User: Fold this.
Amino acid sequence: MKAGSTVTIRPAQHLSGSLRLPGDKSISHRYAMLAAIAEGKSRFENYSTGADCASTLDCLRGLGVHCERSDGNLIEIEGRGLALQAPNGPLDCGNSGSTMRMLSGILAGQSFSSELMGDESLSRRPMARIMKPLTQMGASITAAEDRPPLHIRGGTLHAIRYKMPVASAQVKSCLLFAGLFAQGETEVEEPLRTRDHGEVALRAFGAELKRNGNSTCISGGQRLHAIEGRIPGDLSSAAFFFCAASLFPGSDLVIDSLLMNPTRARLLDVLIGLGVRISITQLEEQHGELVGTVRVEGHQLKSADIAGADSSALIDEIPVLAAIAPFTQSGIQIRGARELRVKESDRIQSIVTNLRAMGARVEEHDDGFTVPGGQTLHGAELDSFGDHRIAMAFAIAALRAQGETHIKGAEAAVISFPAFFQTLESLVQR
Ligand code: S3P
Assistant:
């Protein structure tokens, strides 16, 4: 899809079918970065097809790492041990906050200077959350108004004990990665339990970590070894199809080889609470990550109230929950999700604007929104606001609207799931 592409979505009757999804974005980033600093050649099947994870590979190539991509999603990465090579120019993270924040942890421990830049959206996103602790560890990081580009002068790091003020898995992974290069034991405490793919991946590559309540400790100087495996399907991409299926009694959707990590699967609890029938089978563990098959059968949806730790656990799924909210019996309220304002777009504003364009009643809060249930929406001209999850979420709302919906900037879906619209069409029954 070209820049400025508009996609048209027509109403659906229900969703049916079975599928497998490209690899999880959070795991793909972390596997690629850890493979780069491991010893030996790592090999991953089903690497994320999203542009964000391609940005991570491009940055790693810029740091002298040999990464080969064949058959689309098979990736081989030749580890360099802990020492990367000084880049020739700025490293472009594109739209990917995960690339910039997590790679900074590794670059902080290198004996050279580097610059990390990003696109217009990434250049607006806050970086003080990683700059402050990495500076405390001994790196020098400068950025105008704490926004990208970041100038990092790496060096000898020392361990710190850090209490994260924001619940962010990107920051946690960044600091644990930096901890590998530090002298002593680094301890990271999170205010709420965030996704733990960084910890699970570090262990899979051979590192030892200790967990105590909400704190994780890692000792510096540990060597990583290469791994091989298949990356489980992306649960945040699956969320769009699960929510779409949930909208229509009569839907029957099965997704196999899907990531089932409990720190990512809160959406399934919410859908069950809304009245959706969900069954999980074929559970197994792959490199410490739980993987399984999920079947979703649509039902009349009730209501949901999401706040606090739940909002944090559902942060990437809130746009699609907003998209189905008007069609529930008594609505959905989201609070405690202020972080949505500093994502790829101000997601609270993007959600409220698009829902209103479709004729929905919605109340905006500083940290969320309230959408009453029992509403009828009409097709409309919508904008993705350059945000992949907004483009995909409103394709789902459009399935239950009356008339056609046009989504401008729909190509933003390439960031996490380039085949999203084709996949959706293949499941929709009209
Ligand atoms: C991610 C963590 C979350 C999430 C993002 C991916 C990760 O961001 O929104 O899409 O892979 O660690 P924060 O760390 O900013 O909460």
